[in-house]
Amino acid sequence: MNSKNRLFLALLSACCLATASAAALSEAEINSRVNDLLSRMTLEEKIGQLNQLSGYGYAPEMVGHIRSGAVGSILNEVDPEVVNKLQHEAVENTRLGIPLIFARDVIHGFKTIFPIPLGQAATWNPAIVEEGARIAADEAGSVGIRWTFSPMVDIARDARWGRIAEGFGEDPVLATALGVAMVKGYQGDDLTKPNTMAACAKHFAGYGAAEAGKDYNTTWIPEELLRDVYLRPFKALADAGSATFMCSFNDINGVPSSGNRKLLQNILRDEWGYDGLMVSDWGSIQQMIPHGYSENLRHAAAQAVDAGVDIDMESYAYTGHLRDLVEKGEVSEARVDSLVRNVLNLKYRLGLFENPYVDMASAKRFYAPASLEAARRAVEESAILLKNSGTLPINNSKVKKIAVIGPMADAQHDQAGTWVFDLEKEHSVTPLTALQQMYGKENIIYAPGLEYTRDLNTKGFSDAVKAAKKADVVLYFAGEEAVLSGEAHCRADLSLPGAQSRLLDELKATGKPVVLIVQAGRQLALMHECETADAVVYCFHGGTMTGPGLANLLAGTTNFSGRSPVSFPRMSGQEPLYYNRKNTGRPAEGITLINDIPLEAGQTSTGCTSFYLDAGDGALFPFGYGLSYTTFAYSDPVLSATEIAPDGSLTVKCTITNTGKRAGAEVAQLYIRDHVASLVRPVRELRGFEKITLQPGESRTVEFQLHPSDLAFHINGAQTAVEPGEFSVWVAPNANEGNPVKFNVVKPAEIASR
Ligand code: GLC
């Protein structure tokens, strides 16, 4: 680095230190400064603030864009020196010196990679999620990233959809709790602090309802379902103060979100009162043309401005057409001002006017021991024990040699999962490494068997089988490579890829106990594999510390406490599959499976109810499911009343006892069912949960409150109702178990007449 740059960076650091303590401005002060700045801006400068480009270094073209005021924010620039040099161009070499915001997809960690959000959902622990987000903000903030495009709170009911990996699963209440926790972790209590990031609630909205689980596909969502399920987490994140939102690629009932005024203006702004910033998804404004909603980019720009998309990410729609639209009176400058106001407001909230630069003296803060320890705990709390016939925990008195098999045993890249642009895989600690450290290399016999999860070449099978025969227990690490989930990575067949299932059969044929440990970006269809293996552990891609986390669980040092945030299918064809389904007029009963049907059976001989001849009905493992090394017993719920008015509340208590021999954490789940309503209601709906740790023999009473908002459902657009009638309530270990207790919602007059 030449002396001139060294001097610049030294001055810069001094400047950072002097202003790093810039306290947060009040809302009134920010509004005043925004209005003042706006009054001095040209139309060109305003339009530039609405333009976001993906970075490509300190390149002359980008410098030209900045100096001409044609860009307001940059994503994907993560070199702090480049960030500072580009920021210098904006602050020192433009007429008004408006700083840039630097953004990145920091989805489940920046350098210390946590489990994918679907894995974090399996922890049912908001504190763990908040901690992971705080660590991510500190690491990303140390290179100048002050805005992350996270949390994704798209509800997903279809495992074929690759982006189910990035969300919190199929339930809106669980997604709400964890999404809010993530926002708190990113934004902290003072967004001007350089180790915080603006959160981004995405993808608004209904993206996870993509038809057939195919990414970017059309969605058809009746407004009542949209509001009951898909909008619920977004409303909570708006209320929790997520600084930004991102509109989604998909159309809802024929209207692409990027031009959906009802969604972005009427619901988000007018009804919810949200005053943050709305950014488009990558090119989503331009994509309204192939959608068939916009004639051309100029038309798309007008539609997006009208709907309320503040920032155009990589469509070049606003820089290309907004000036002409304003000059021709098709878009008012006042409307442009309202968008620019949201951008400037965010920059003031982030403290960028006072403190625009990365403090190079403390840049690149990664992999702190405490961060790695938190990432390991997240893995331990996210992994789900699906089956255990006694093989786990590894019994050190009987087990001397351990065979470690499979393409995911030592997969430093793939164990990190999807959306990890900044991964340094050499920091990933794999299960093989962790087990060698735990048991000694001499006691671990490693044979991958397959080189990667899609591998069909069985040349490695013989070594794997030999390894298994020499061992006392086989740990088979299978699953999906990271690339098989995430954006645009949908799968119509949810089987284990490649020859992994065949390898399991060969390992089982050795007669040794086999533990199947799956690392994947989604729930897979593993009916045969779960029948074959002696124990099954499921880990939605665990990130940097997958190895130590899984090793502690397999060894029994730590007890399992993961519970599934999704419904596991028996077969791919069951998708979409989710627990909070409708009962139908012919719920499954008397299931006759395909191989049990007699020859020339009569047409109605298998009964006429709702199930599959080959897959039966329901999940292989239900929402909320997970085993432990101990056992728990639930009392029947005790209600504070057996009837309440529609505006009344109810207390639900349940005593849970650890009936096993070791401590463990249990996730008590509160479900309701509204048995009769003017729109049929789901057979169960999660309305609360609490994760508690109990010592052997210990009992604890958990208490939940049910309020009208928990019993209400959307009956006509935004209108909700709590209708009189019978309800059931459960406190249960998952969506299939538990003893319900009933209560009634009755009209106040009925109560008064008693
Ligand atoms: C992608 C994704 C979105 C991401 C954005 C920026 O296409 O849909 O989630 O934040 O572009 O990378």
What can you tell me about this protein's structure?
The protein is of the alpha/beta class and 754 residues long. Among the domains are: 182 residues, Rossmann fold; 34 residues, no CATH class; 121 residues, Immunoglobulin-like, CATH 2.60.40. Helix content is 31%, strand content 17%. The chain is built from 23 helices and 27 strands. Strands 11-16-15-14-12-13 form a six-stranded mixed beta sheet, sandwiched between helices. Strands 4-3-2-1-10 form a five-stranded parallel beta sheet. Strand 2, helix 5 and strand 3 form a beta-alpha-beta unit. Helix 11 runs parallel beside helix 13. It is globular. It starts with a helix and ends with a helix. About 1% of the residues have low confidence. The site of alpha-D-glucopyranose has 7 residues, from loops.
Q: How would the blueprint of this fold be written?
A:
Blueprint: H1 3-19, H2 27-39, H3 43-49, E1 51-54, H4 60-67, E2 73-75, H5 80-92, E3 101-104, H6 117-121, H7 126-141, E4 147-148, H8 172-187, E5 200-204, H9 223-230, H10 232-239, E6 244-247, E7 251-252, E8 255-256, H11 261-271, E9 277-279, H12 288-291, H13 297-307, E10 312-313, H14 317-327, H15 333-349, H16 369-382, E11 384-388, E12 402-405, H17 431-439, E13 444-447, H18 461-470, E14 473-479, H19 500-508, E15 514-520, H20 527-532, E16 535-540, H21 546-555, E17 632-634, E18 638-639, E19 643-644, E20 650-658, E21 664-674, E22 685-694, E23 699-706, H22 708-711, E24 713-716, E25 719-721, E26 725-732, E27 741-745, H23 748-752
Parallel strand pairs: 1-2, 1-10, 2-3, 3-4, 5-6, 6-9, 12-13, 12-14, 14-15, 15-16, 19-27
Antiparallel strand pairs: 7-8, 11-16, 17-20, 18-20, 20-23, 21-22, 21-26, 24-25, 26-27
Helix pairs in contact: 2-15, 3-14, 3-15, 7-8, 7-16, 8-10, 11-13, 13-14, 16-21, 17-21
